[in-house]
Amino acid sequence: MNNLFSHIPQSLEQELFEDIVKNEHVRIERIVSNGQGSPEHGWYDQVDNEWVLVLSGFGIIEYPYGNAVKLKQGDYLTIPAHQKHRVKSTSPTEPTIWLAIFFPT
Fold first, then answer.
1. 3-state DSSP call for residue 4?
2. Euclidean distance between CA atoms 58 and 69, whole angstroms
3. Is the predicted pLDDT of residue 40 greater than 90, yes or no?
4. What is the mean pLDDT of the chain?
5. Where does the record locate the signal sequence feature (predicted)?
6. Regarding beta strands 86-90 and 58-62, do their DSSP bridges make them parallel or antiparallel, or are they unpaired?
7. Cα–Cα distances in angstroms (integers) from residue 41 to residues 15, 57, 60, 86, 87, in the given order
8. pLDDT confidence bin for 90, thresholds 50/70/90
9. I need a labelling partner for 29 at 20 to 30 A (CA). Which of 3, 22, 56, 64 fits?
10. Interior CA angle at 86 toward 60 and 38, to 5°?
């Protein structure tokens, strides 16, 4: 048995990405952030759909045209394949724990 809230580092220089399940149909990933965001010069442009849930903390997802969505504990969002996006910011005072599920279109 495992727990999504176990083994959370006290401090992180970079976001922590860990695959929980990965096969040809789905990838489930735990992401731990502590104040990090995506690089300013890059956007995610993924071939799969992404369903993301914030388990603790908060994160702001930004889209290329300036609109943004703040996700807090319990909030989730589906990001369609090839929808450019990035993480603008995450909580600097507590770990932001994300659960991301990637699945084909």
1. coil
2. 10
3. no
4. 94
5. none
6. antiparallel
7. 17, 24, 16, 10, 12
8. very high
9. 64
10. 95
DSSP state of 105: -
Q: Is the residue at 93 inside a domain?
A: yes
| Beta carbons within 10 angstroms of residue 104's beta carbon | 10
Tokens 């599920």 map to which residue?
Answer: 101
Contact 94, 57 (CB under 8 A): yes
pTM metric for this prediction: 0.92
Domain count within the chain: 1
Strand partners, 17: 31
Token pair for residue 98?
Answer: 């994300």
CA-nearest of 56, 57, 101, 65 to 83 is 65
Q: Residue 68 sits in which domain range? A: 16-103
Can you give the pLDDT at residue 50? 98
Spell out a b/e string for 73-103, using b for 16 or more CB atoms within 10 Å of the CB, else e: eeeeeebeeebebbbbbbbeeebbbbbbbbe
